Amino acid sequence: MATKSKQKKREPQVNIWRGFEIDRLIASGTYPNVPFLMKRFEVSEATILRDIERLRNDFNAPIEYDRFKKGYFYTHPTFRIPANLSTEKEIVAARLMSNLLETLRGTPIYAQAVEVFATLANNIDDNTESGLAKRLSNRIVFLGMNPVPISDEVWASLENALAQNRYITFDYAYFDGGEPKQITAEPWQLLFSNGMWTLYGKETKSGEIRFYNLPLINNVRLHKESFTLPEDFEYTKRAVGNFGRYIARKTYEFKIKIESPITLNWVRTYQWADDQRFEPQTDGSTLMTFTSNQLYPVLNWVMSQGKWMTPLAPTELVDLWREQVREMAEKVGR
Question: Is this prediction's pTM over 0.70?
Answer without folding.
Answer: no
